[in-house]
Design a protein that fits this description.
13 strands, globular, 16 helices, Aspartate Aminotransferase, domain 2, Aspartate Aminotransferase, domain 1, EC 4.1.1.86 (chains A, B), homodimer
Chain lengths: 498, 498
Amino acid sequence: MPTDSLNTARQRIQAAYSPEVFQSLGESLISRLGVHLGELQQRGQSVLNWNLPEENLSVARECLQRSKTSDDLLNRFQDLIETAIERGHNLHHPRYIGHQVPASVPLAGLFDALGSITNQVMAIYEMGPWATSVEKALIERWGEVIGLAPGTFAGLVTHGGSLANLTALLTARNISLKNSWTQGVQNANLPVLVANADSHYCVTRSAGILGLGTEQVIKVRLDHRRRMDATALDETLTQLRKRNTPIVAVSASACATLIGAFDPLQEIADVCERHGVWMHVDAAHGGAVSMSKKHAHLIDGITRADSFICDAHKTLFVPALCAFVFYRDKQHRFETFQQDAPYLFDPSAPGMADVDGGMMTIECTKRAATYGLWGVWSMLGQQIFEDLIDVTFATTQLLYQKLRAEKDFEPLHEPECNIQVFRYLPDEKYGLDSKAICELNRQIRRTLMESGEFYLVQTNLDGIGTLRTTVMNPLTNEEDLDQLFSSIRRTAEEILSQ
Amino acid sequence: MPTDSLNTARQRIQAAYSPEVFQSLGESLISRLGVHLGELQQRGQSVLNWNLPEENLSVARECLQRSKTSDDLLNRFQDLIETAIERGHNLHHPRYIGHQVPASVPLAGLFDALGSITNQVMAIYEMGPWATSVEKALIERWGEVIGLAPGTFAGLVTHGGSLANLTALLTARNISLKNSWTQGVQNANLPVLVANADSHYCVTRSAGILGLGTEQVIKVRLDHRRRMDATALDETLTQLRKRNTPIVAVSASACATLIGAFDPLQEIADVCERHGVWMHVDAAHGGAVSMSKKHAHLIDGITRADSFICDAHKTLFVPALCAFVFYRDKQHRFETFQQDAPYLFDPSAPGMADVDGGMMTIECTKRAATYGLWGVWSMLGQQIFEDLIDVTFATTQLLYQKLRAEKDFEPLHEPECNIQVFRYLPDEKYGLDSKAICELNRQIRRTLMESGEFYLVQTNLDGIGTLRTTVMNPLTNEEDLDQLFSSIRRTAEEILSQ
């Protein structure tokens, strides 16, 4: 390659890496986001900026096509930021009450940005000494808040709840089915995974990924509150043991996604201990109740599980993704993988395995995924997490009371946390049958979503199509709930009068 | 819970979510990072800020313990940022020439921060309409740059190369072993995965995770340049077919981590086609050569693979993590998982499966992982990626030439990309045997790393302990290389004179 063209390339790179340009664009970004957050808190914009996929895709394609000279970098940057904001989702709008993804604490995003801009990563301690240390301190601290005994447990952080469940269930598989790591899942007596019938889809997917087979997941009967029935679990395990069926694990939920029901973990732990089965808890959403004096009882017994997961990017209100896996017994921490990688793991420095995170995670290179949580915790203390849980749970209780009080609304359960499933019941004069009511609720949701007035979701509860909300923004208040009721009523009338 | 304490909690939350506080801290962060980047470019700081794990952990613990009043939020924030910078790794220092993690384009970090601060996520289109669209536009565009035919292929983005390889190999397993998704890996004739002998450890781990077993990975012989030998592959597949052994896939490397050797993909594709075997390529590091007219030939033939992966967070110089999986035939895109999740995937909106990313990824909630890449591409055009490849590869060639010219250094291969393995050979007067020379090289590396003068790594090449560099910072220049030589010599003399 001629020196000339390399030199030109070097000049372009110098410009792209210019600290001055970075600073000027960075200031512009922060200023724009400050205004944006303020507008959202005033409910001044749409919640979701709805556009059809093909329309957004075409704009995204066009962005990649245009190229500008370095003279107008700031203008170009501002245009792009504006496009992303205009076409993105506004989780920080108090009328965002949709999926279990939070209006994150804005400060957490700044700490995350510190990691991103300086590209702090992990796998081995050397590559991310501070990222690794922060993560280890948080594992220790959160584990102790949950009630694990200091020094006895281990943990890791990974990119999301699905990956966290997969990692823990892989550990369980390797322990329950000896040699399955090295020799594969080869057993004439097909092994099973026993799970809460409302488990997140990633639990069944884990069985598919791990070579067990999705059909080898046995779903345990739920009680009237959609919690795993411990007696039914006991019967299931008894039968499986009688048939000599290998049991990989029992996977409980705290809580299950659908209505936010918390399994009775103490009872499940009793059953698992009796049968000698690995107990796992998917506490992706609910693990954060450990921070609240009022609500911690919901996960009572979780410290008896062999493994459990908690998503900080759900109910600790930090940006995605920051999922924790905990192993009650730290001896299990290296059962997940058992391998060498000489260029990574320095044989001249034994004892580093415990600080080289890659030994325990599916990721090799991993983001500094806990910078956001570390920053919020260090700035505001543990108190802020209790506040966030208590306030969002209280708002959901208020929603429930309001739903009960109105004859054209039906709550489909009493909320245990910040999840509420309900539906709108139109006046009998319209003569809608059960199926038509489901369809009406679907249409209401879609209309509200596309209008940007509210963002809520839908689900299917025992064949009934319903509305579903999760209060994931602590700034959602009573006025927002009242507005939700009137918006739903207005939308229903518009649909029914067509 | 008493209304009073809820109100107090609400006040603390209001303060934590204050747009004004966000803006003030954000400006302070950007300003600090601008100065930091400038200092690093002047080589004014250490590369790695080395501290023992226990020391860093103790500081990280302490941060979580202290709690301050909201009055001094800015001071507290600045303290924490300072701590993270002082104890972190400086990949943006031009003397960082270590693992395959780049000194990322700083602008990419700003776009990533936009996603983080506003918590843009995906799984379903609704939740991240812009994040989804940007990702899809990039999959299209990069796929076409690589040479895939428009409209015929599919892709996804996931959190890192290990997860990307796992996803692609899961797809291969589901297709190669019918019913393995639903019924598990149950085959009397144990299935195998055939791989490059220098494959990244995640390939063997994938076999362990997927229920095949790590011992079921057959490593194909390498040629004299450490590339998979296509003739040996042919022999391996012929024997396996003769024995009716199910073959999940052939996993080639472009390039393998160790010395950066690119497999002969055209020849491997010929062999795989002849035997009717799924061809996968781990092009985590090398996929980016597609951007360079000079180096694209290295992955010639990759478009014949059934699946391959490319990490934008390696050689497209964006922050971690942003890994692409490509399927040559878009019909394979839903083979990875086959499941329902009614609360996510809206049955009233058929056709959304193609825009609901969660249908194809192990993650359910996923970060807006491509904001950084989208921003850089849209700001600076495709040219910047060609520049980054050409410059870092040219710097590595220069390093190689210098190593050859010096009698006390030995390059252990001619570099094909930006990876160079070499060692220091001390004067014969010291009478060091082969083992002692390996040990000396290890000591040199550790000394340089801990001093913060350079960051490079080590590896083991056919039993020889060596030094290993990857030029992952485009600002690394000839002067840095000359300084590397003198630092190594000085360090060696210090060690040998002890």
